[in-house]
Fold this sequence. Notes:
Elements: H1 12-23, E1 36-40, E2 43-49, E3 61-68, E4 74-79
Antiparallel strand pairs: 1-2, 2-3, 3-4
Amino acid sequence: MPDxxxxxxxxxxxxxxxxxxxxxxxxxIPADVVPQVSREGHRVVVLFPTRLPPGTLxxxxxxxxxxxxxxxxxxxxxxx
Length: 80
C-alpha cells in the first residue's frame, strides 16, 4: 500500500504519451521509434533514440523530453 504522504508518480506509459504530445508540431518522431524511459529523482526523462551511420557526428536522439514525475509537466524538450 502506498504511503499517503507520498505523491503519485506518473507511469512510464503516461510519460511516453505526454512526451509524444509535447513533440507534436516541434519534432518529428517516427512511429516505429521505441522510447527509452529513465527516472532521475523527481523527473522522468523520455528519449526517442535515432541511429546514426558509423562515423557520423550528431545527436543520438530525435528528442529528449524531461517531465516532472508527479505532475507530468514538461520541464525541457530537446530536439535532435
